[in-house]
């Protein structure tokens, strides 16, 4: 009998292979080997089958590089890797997946006291995997398409080719946030703020930052965690920025309709909007030669505001920029009807926000202290975004009020039109 060399592993060696998760060695038996030899080889070389233990993927919020957060992240990862087969996803009921536990971070987070640690710990205890959130997003998109198809359900509506109005529009909402920092990049904080507002919209997300000279933008369909990876975040430089998560109340589902929207004249304006306009057709007629790239009422609102700013600038070229922007938005509020909470970034002016005269959609102002006792500001749909970022709630933006955060961090407000609070039932 010819001698053939085979690699034989002892019991301890097989256990070592199992512990290090190395693949089992493959048995190569010569065709002329006896059945007895083959059986012995299979018994000695092929390890017993392993029981599959599902892995859990956790996407951590942006955290600092402090030892506290590093230890916490390592502990969370170890706990999740040892999760039992009985673990269930928070969203959906997908079958167990063979996924390696990974902790994903976005750099640049800022630690701001024990309150932030507590909020983040509570948030992480309900962390969702990316796959599970994608299931929720696809369900939302499918539901939107179904409602759009079912909207034309009367002979009159079908004849004119337009969907009937629906009272269910009142339940739809978007999430908006704007942050002004004294120094440093704001993108990581916008990311975390959008995560805290993700429940307000899952169809698309967008973010734009400003460094005093250039705007940097990223927007797409999908969830916040899927759009903004480390490569994208590194490019979003600037200490001032705005972010948006969208549930479409008007327009389509195309990525081109994701916000923020931009016009380059006058000055250069980015806008994010939560709400619904009810006189969009009339506003479009009055805009004249301006061309709309989308069917979104938010783009119409942006162009109305741009026209009013340009009219004020032409009327008095030497007018103070702050006065000009407040006068322009006063005219805009008199023209626009419906629900709108808006945050804009205006080149050479600052972070500018305003709310409709009935306060239908929420808008909240937050503040925190930076080094040198300087003020930093945050404006958002909900104060749920304030806690993880270290901001303290100051107050709601009043109905019919506009607020300007200048480039040097000064907060200026004006009651542009008379307001009477009449909020949406689904918001409070």
Describe this structure as you would to a colleague.
The chain is of the alpha+beta class. It has 12 helices and 15 strands. It has helices spanning 11-19, 35-45, 67-81, 113-124, 130-151, 155-160, 187-196, 224-227, 230-235, 280-287, 297-315, 321-335; strands at residues 58-59, 103-104, 175-180, 204-210, 215-221, 240-246, 261-263, 269-277, 338-346, 350-355, 364-369, 375-380, 392-396, 401-406, 411-415. It has a 7-stranded antiparallel β-sheet with strand order 5-4-6-3-12-11-13, covered by helices on one side. The longest helix has 22 residues, at 130-151.
Concise synopsis of the structure shown:
The chain is an alpha+beta fold. The chain has twelve helices and 15 strands. α10 (280-287) packs across α11 and α11 packs across α12 (321-335).
Estimated helix fraction:
25-40%
Mean model confidence by pLDDT = 75
As residue ranges, the low-confidence spans are 27-34, 55-66, 81-112, 122-133, 150-171
What is the strand tally?
15
CA radius of gyration is: 28 Å
Helix and strand run = HHEHEHHHEHEEHHEEEHHHEEEEEEE
Q: Main beta sheet: strand number and arrangement?
A: 7 strands, antiparallel
Q: Which strand order does the major sheet show?
A: 5-4-6-3-12-11-13
Shape: globular
Based on helices, strands and strand pairing, what is the structural class?
alpha+beta
In angstroms, what separates the terminal alpha carbons? 86 Å
User: In percent terms, what proportion of residues is strand?
Assistant: 15-25%
Keywords:
single chain; 428 residues; alpha+beta; 7-stranded antiparallel β-sheet; 6-stranded antiparallel β-sheet; 12 helices; 15 strands; globular
């Amino acid at each position: 009998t010819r001698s053939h060399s085979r690699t034989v592993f002892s019991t301890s060696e097989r256990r070592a292979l199992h512990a290090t998760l190395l693949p089992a060695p493959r048995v190569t038996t010569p065709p002329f080997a006896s059945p007895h030899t083959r059986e012995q080889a299979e018994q000695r070389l092929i390890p017993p089958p392993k029981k599959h233990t599902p892995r859990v993927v956790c996407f951590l919020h942006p955290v600092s590089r402090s030892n506290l957060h590093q230890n916490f992240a390592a502990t969370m990862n170890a706990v999740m890797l040892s999760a039992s087969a009985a673990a269930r996803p928070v969203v959906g009921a997908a079958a167990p997946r063979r996924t390696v536990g990974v902790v994903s971070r976005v750099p640049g987070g800022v630690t701001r006291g024990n309150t932030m640690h507590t909020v983040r710990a509570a948030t992480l205890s309900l962390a969702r995997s990316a796959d599970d959130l994608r299931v929720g997003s696809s369900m939302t998109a499918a539901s939107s398409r179904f409602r759009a198809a079912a909207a034309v359900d009367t002979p009159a509506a079908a004849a004119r080719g337009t969907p009937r109005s629906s009272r269910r529009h009142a339940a739809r909402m978007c999430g908006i946030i704007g942050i002004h920092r004294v120094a440093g990049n704001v993108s990581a904080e916008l990311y975390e703020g959008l995560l805290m507002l993700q429940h307000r919209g899952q169809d698309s997300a967008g973010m734009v930052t400003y460094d005093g000279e250039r705007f940097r933008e990223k927007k797409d369909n999908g969830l916040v965690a899927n759009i903004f990876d480390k490569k994208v975040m590194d490019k979003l430089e600037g200490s001032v920025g705005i972010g948006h998560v969208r549930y479409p109340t008007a327009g389509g589902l195309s990525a081109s309709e994701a916000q923020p929207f931009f016009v380059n004249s006058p000055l250069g304006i980015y806008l994010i909007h939560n709400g619904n306009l009810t006189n969009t057709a009339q506003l479009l007629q009055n805009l004249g030669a301006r061309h709309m790239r989308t069917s979104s009422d938010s783009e119409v609102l942006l162009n109305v505001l741009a026209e009013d700013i340009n009219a004020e600038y032409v009327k008095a070229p030497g007018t103070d920029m702050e006065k000009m922007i407040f006068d322009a938005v006063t005219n805009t509020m008199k023209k626009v009807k419906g629900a709108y909470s808006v945050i804009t970034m205006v080149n050479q002016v600052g972070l500018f926000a305003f709310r409709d005269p009935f306060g239908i959609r929420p808008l909240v102002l937050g503040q925190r202290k930076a080094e040198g006792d300087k003020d930093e500001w945050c404006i958002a749909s909900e104060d749920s975004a304030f806690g993880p970022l270290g901001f303290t709630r100051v107050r709601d933006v009043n109905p019919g009020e506009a607020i300007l955060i200048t480039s040097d961090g000064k907060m200026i407000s004006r009651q542009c039109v008379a307001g009477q609070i009449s909020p949406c039932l689904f918001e409070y």
